[in-house]
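Batch manifest line 228
LIGAND: cytidine-5'-diphosphate
JOB: complex structure
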Amino acid sequence: MPNSYIPVITIDGPTASGKGTVAQRVAQHLGFHYLDSGALYRLTALSVMRRATPLDDEHALAKAAEHLHCHFNGAHIFLANEDVSNDIRAEEVGNLASKIAAIPTVRQALFGLQLSFRQHPGLVADGRDMGTVIFPHAGLKVFLTASVEARAQRRYKQLIDKGFSANMEDLSKDLTERDARDSNRSSAPLKAAEGAYLLDTSAMTVDQAVEQVLSWYAAAKALHTQSE
Ligand code: CDP
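JOB STATUS: finished
ARTIFACT:
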């Protein structure tokens, strides 16, 4: 492989499908960088919530995304030097993130920042449009799904573990609404990229899902080396 080649693995999928956990573990295993692209939309949402930016002012929303002062340090996510790792996981922030993510100028404002995560020795990127829009030439693309019930249960556990209150009925409703909004928007809708491997994790453990992605990656890497 030429030195300039920086491999990318994309893991896209609906809300609470477990893609973040799987992507992080795969990145850790390979010693790759990790991009949580959803966190960028959540940071933008938190930033506009705090500044009470009018939600019908698309220009101001895009500006908030463009001037996002954020940085990542391991599992910690900072907005203007404040650790907001927990705050951005609140459901209201996720729901607002999904609303503003439908605005093309907001997506455009976050484009370059996402590309900058592609650094040696490689990147695992998770989100909705990693394989379709941001890294369309990724060496391995995965579309990770799970049933609404499995996803609502995972999100419930995640929220309770973080000290938020949650109830299953509201969560299932939120997930279904968010799926519909993310899939039906005209700009970068949630869908499997061409050539993506589909992985339904409803009945799988995290370890099994990680193993599957790693074995697809080993096969894709062997193929890439052969074609050099
Ligand atoms: O944690 P969860 O899967 O619910 O969401 P997330 O990955 O943190 O993303 C929050 C929201 O940002 C999603 O509902 C999407 O609408 C949006 N998003 C997006 O549009 N494109 C991405 N690449 C990542 C997230």
